[in-house]
Structure formats: C-alpha cells, structure tokens
C-alpha cells in the first residue's frame, strides 16, 4: 500500500487470487530458493522416515496393533507433505488443508484403537479393567464438571467410546467432500462469514464433532496412562496432542489474523494467501520434528504388557498344578 497525498493506493495483487506455481518460482530470490528447498527436503525426509518406520512396524508388530501405529504415525508426515504441496501450489490450499484435516480425523479414532491394542485388544482391556469405572469429567467437554458420575466399563461403554471417535473420522471426510463440491459452485468460502454462506454453518458443526471425538480419547487415556506407562503412552499422547494443536489451533489463529488484515499483503500474495503460506511453512518444520520424535517412540521392540495382577496369576498356576496332581493320583 502506498500513499499518494490523501489517497491510499493498494497493490491490485492484494485482491487477486493466490499466485500460480510458476509465478512463485519466478519471484523467488536466493533466500526464497534456499527456504523452499530446505522445507521441501524436510517434507520429503519426513515421508521417507515414515515409510521406513512402516516397513519396520509391519515386520515386527502383530496385525491389529501395526495398522493403528501406521495410521497414528502418518499424521505428521502427511500434514508436512500436504503443507509442502500447498506452499508450492497456493491455489490448492483448501484441498491440501482438507486432506490433512480428514486424515487427522481418522488418526483421532486410530489413537483410541491404539491404546486398546496396547492393552492386548478389547477382550484383554475388559478383563483388566472390567471391575473399574471410567472418569468422564475430562476435557475437552466436561473437565469443569467434576460432579459427573463414573461410568462402569462394559462392552456397551467401549462401543460408545469408539463410536464417539469414529463419527468424526466419517463425518469430517463427508463434510470435506461437501465443502469442495460447494466451493466449485462458489458457495463455499472460508472467509465468508455471512449467514448466507456455507462456511458459517459447516465449520462450527465440524468443530462440535471434533470436541465430541476428542472426549473419548481423553477418557481412555486418563484411565490407561498408568497401565500403559511401560508402553510410553504418555509421550505418545503428548505428540498426538501436539499435532492437534499445531495443525488445527495454530493454523486457525494465523488464518483469522490474515482474514482480519493483521498479516500484511506482500505481492504476489494477498493477506489471506500469505497467512496460508506462513502456516504451511511452520507446519512443515514442526511436523518434521514430530516425525523424528515419533520414530524414537514407535520404532522399537514391543515388550508384552505386564500382568495385571501377578499374585492372581500365580494362584491360577498353583490351581492348575493341584488339579494336574489330583488327576495323576486318580489315574494311579
């Protein structure tokens, strides 16, 4: 923006669509070339590390657990890859962002499944924890409601917890496809906050679905964090939460600042396009670091979970020995 007397002259590119990929390449200076090259290399390395980790997990881990590990580990490299594509092709930002968000919606459900598989599966979880109760006054829904009663752990409770997370994996993908369809018909614009716009109805509803999906995961983690401490579930959950905050909350804050004009226009980028660019570049760096951290957490030998009650197991073994002795005496 330039001043000409009392008249403000705004660069026309500040109101144009995001630039094409070829325009970005033509505008890059030496610093830009190095920055784009380094970030692209980070995204590529993150994906290669993830592929190598998947090969290791599929060889060393049993079937139910390895699928959940592969999905959960893929969150950071997939987001980094989509952010890299959005950085190079700004007009595809909505598609890359929705792909990342849809993938992470599946990860929310898969992390719940991962915790159950770390226990040995649904049956083993019910055997270990069937006599206990679940504390449901946890975030993000009911952390301020300590008066809520504890819930018995049953098959029905486990089914409802799974359903609470699975609905987000399904409906987030459906709403992403719907948003893209409406966008092609010029009915969906994330910056359009008018009551007649589709974004003002879809985005809050997806936000409610997100909160509902995160609640069962938090309930299960609070119950299993001591049981699964040997499986390093606390740092795994921390990495999962970090991906959530960075990919959802951080990006939302930057995009809101861009839509309000707080982030200045920098031709050939409009204010909103520049906000997307900053968000994508930050995500590539952050997801690269998280990918390396996840490799240390997941690429290892998986020891069996310690017995829930060693004394009870000893009693069972003693009972079997006594029965075998009695059978031998009867035969004699």
Which keywords apply here?
mainly alpha; globular; 11 helices; membrane; 332 residues; transmembrane; disordered N terminus; Ostalpha/TMEM184C; disordered C terminus; Rhopdopsin 7-helix transmembrane proteins; Organic solute transporter subunit alpha
Topology, pairings included?
Elements: E1 2-4, E2 7-9, H1 21-27, H2 30-60, H3 63-73, H4 75-88, H5 93-119, H6 122-129, E3 133-134, E4 151-152, H7 155-184, H8 199-224, H9 233-259, H10 271-298, H11 310-331
Antiparallel strand pairs: 1-2, 3-4
Helix pairs in contact: 2-3, 2-4, 2-10, 3-5, 4-5, 4-10, 5-7, 5-8, 5-9, 7-8, 9-10
Description:
- The chain has 332 residues and is mainly α.
- It has a single domain, classed as Rhopdopsin 7-helix transmembrane proteins, CATH 1.20.1070.
- Helices cover 70% and strands 3% of the residues.
- The strands form two sheets. The chain has a two-stranded antiparallel ribbon. It has a two-stranded antiparallel ribbon with strand order 3-4.
- Helix 4 packs antiparallel against helix 5 and helix 5 packs parallel to helix 8.
- The protein is globular, with a radius of gyration of 25 Å.
- The N terminus and C terminus are likely disordered.
- It comes from Aldrovandia affinis.
- Its main location: membrane.
Tell me the strand order in the biggest sheet. 1-2
Basic shape: globular
**SS elements, strand count:** 4
Stretches with pLDDT under 50, minimum 5 residues: 1-8, 310-324, 326-332
Mean pLDDT: 82
Structure annotation, total helices: 11
CATH class: Mainly Alpha
Biggest beta sheet summary: 2 strands, antiparallel
Distance between the termini: 102 Å
Give the helix/strand class.
mainly alpha
Q: What CATH architecture would you give?
A: Up-down Bundle
- Any idea of the CATH topology? Rhopdopsin 7-helix transmembrane proteins
Element order: H for helix, E for strand: EEHHHHHHEEHHHHH
How much beta, percentage-wise?
Answer: under 5%
> What's the Cα radius of gyration?
25 Å
Q: Kindly report the oligomeric state of this protein.
A: single chain
- Write down the domain tally: 1
